[in-house]
Amino acid sequence: MELKDKLVSSFLAFENTVDVDTAVHDIRSQAIKTFEEKGFPTKKEEAWKYTSLNTVLKHDYSIFPKEENAIEFKDIKRYFLYDLDTYKIVFIDGQYSSHLSETTHDKIDVCLMSSALTHEKYKPIIDTYFNKITPQDGLSSLNTAFSREGAYIYIPKNTIADKPIQIIHFATGKESAQMLQPRNLIVVGENSNVQIIERHQSLSKNPVLTNSVSEIFADKSAFVDYYKIQNDDQSASLIDSTYIEQHAKSVASVHTFAFGGNITRNNLNFYQKGEGIDSILNGVTIIEGKQHVDHNTLVHHTEPNCESHQDYKGIFDERATGVFNGKIIVNKEAQKTNAFQSNNNILLSDKATINSKPQLEIFADDVKCSHGCTIGQLDDNALFYMKSRGIGEKEARALLMYAFANNVLSSVKIPQLKSRINKLIAKKLGVDIGFDL
Q: Are 380 and 412 within 8 A, CB to CB?
């Protein structure tokens, strides 16, 4: 049985295991119909022209975990920011792990999507925000149909989250192949502030396919600082779709660090719904072997006096493939827009590939919009100069690549996370730099 047919036939069994109100049931039922109609994306679709899921979809994935699997903190400590006090929402094979998590309902809600979907106290938020900005494409609809567990974060008006929040999904590999579909809902009230770190991590060599969807709402003057760490095993594939709606004078920043995995697809869409908004999209990709990372971004400017800044850097070695498909849309009413988009790449091998397509669709006449793309290799003259000063070639190449990624790293606002990312980059490059950027 093909995966699509297996998922459709499993839907009724899934619905019988969950308890939700009629509205959510109707949303799920419509979503599975949409998935049945549209299915998985193919390379015939322009947005998926350079990314094929055929090899990923051939496995016989387990849709529901057969048993609850426990893991010890000492075995996974390295995947946490353990030197930073944070709230933690941890899932193991799609199920909540209470002994690894630290949630709260003190002034803010950091808890479970399953609770929000079933308890009456959360119904006003669910009715207002759940599935409101997620598009009706095949993959997002599939996630909506099977949405049960994930992170539910609500920051009320005029509230600053007292510490960052970590969302971590582990796959133990107890199944021969497993599919996970986490769903996150994050609502940040007017004049409020939150920092979030998200990670998906496989703990075995068995195939894992994660189809994740996050909806984020930033109210007036809210600040959302979001970090995605993607450094998974080469048997794990991730489709990460994040949809962000911003209101007047809000700032939303998303950093994506893509260092590993089999196929990684990031769909990152920003919808601006007011004036004075700033949307920030930064990313660093360092991959090798036959790894594949695809960044698909959209920023939609609908009202005047807003900004967006995109800066994606990529380093590709061996047979690795990168994709950047970034789009900026500026409506006719969105005068005085300042939109910047940049995608710069280094190919370390003749067999590495980057497909880059920056796009601007501008219908306003009083704007400052720019986009650019570069693809090249390390500067031989710079390498020669550094080697002439006694720096080994390997270290010189690493230093140049560090400098290449530095402006993205400099905007990370959590010092402990910045240090961790620096160490991950050094490990990817195979050197010990000996200083933090």
A: no
Please, are residues 371 and 358 in contact by the beta-carbon 8 Å criterion? yes
pLDDT value at position 67?
65
Helices (H) and strands (E) in the chain, counts: 10, 20
In the numeric block, the tokens 């946490």 are attached to: 80
Amino acid at 143: N
pTM of the complete model: 0.94
> Domain for residue 9, yes or no?
yes
Closest C-alpha to 437, from 399, 391, 393, 384: 399
In tens, the pLDDT along 169-190 reads: 999 988 899 999 999 999 999 9
Whether the pLDDT of residue 68 is over 90: the answer is no
Structure tokens at 8: 């459709």
Nearest to 114 by CA among 258, 216, 17: 17
Write down which residue in 273, 289, 323 finishes a domain: 273
Rg, C-alpha atoms of the chain: 21
Do 103 and 87 meet the contact criterion of CB atoms below 8 Å apart? yes
- For the ranges 66-80, 133-147, 153-167, 218-232, the lowest mean pLDDT is seen at 66-80
Whether 258 and 403 map to the same domain: the answer is no
Amino acid (1-letter code) at residue 424: L
Which residues are CB-neighbours of 200 under 8 A, at least 6 positions away? 168, 169, 171, 180, 210, 212, 230, 232, 236, 238, 240
In degrees, to the nearest 5, what angle opens at C-alpha 205 toward C-alphas 199 and 206?
95
- Residues 252, 217: Cα–Cα separation, whole Å: 9
CA 158 to chain centroid: 26
- Has residue 358 been placed in a domain? no
Cα–Cα distance measured from residue 268 to residue 103, given in angstroms and rounded to the nearest whole number: 26
Residue 66 falls within a domain, yes or no?
A: yes
Instruction: Say if residue 263 is in the same domain as residue 384.
Output: no
Average pLDDT, the chain: 92
Determine the pLDDT at residue 273.
96
Determine contact, residues 286/256, Cβ cutoff 8 Å.
Answer: no
- Given a contact cutoff of 8 angstroms between Cβ atoms, the answer to whether 318 and 351 are in contact is yes
The answer to whether residue 327 is domain-embedded is no
Same structural domain for residues 133 and 9? yes
The answer on pLDDT for 219 being more than 90 is yes
State how far the alpha carbon of 21 is from the alpha carbons of 10, 152, 162, in Å: 20, 17, 32
| Domain count of the fold of the chain | 2
The type of residue at 202 is: S
Range of the domain at 16: 3-273
User: What angle, rounded to 10 degrees, do the helices at 380-388 and 393-409 form?
Assistant: 120
75: its two tokens: 């075995």
Domain boundary among 228, 253, 273: 273
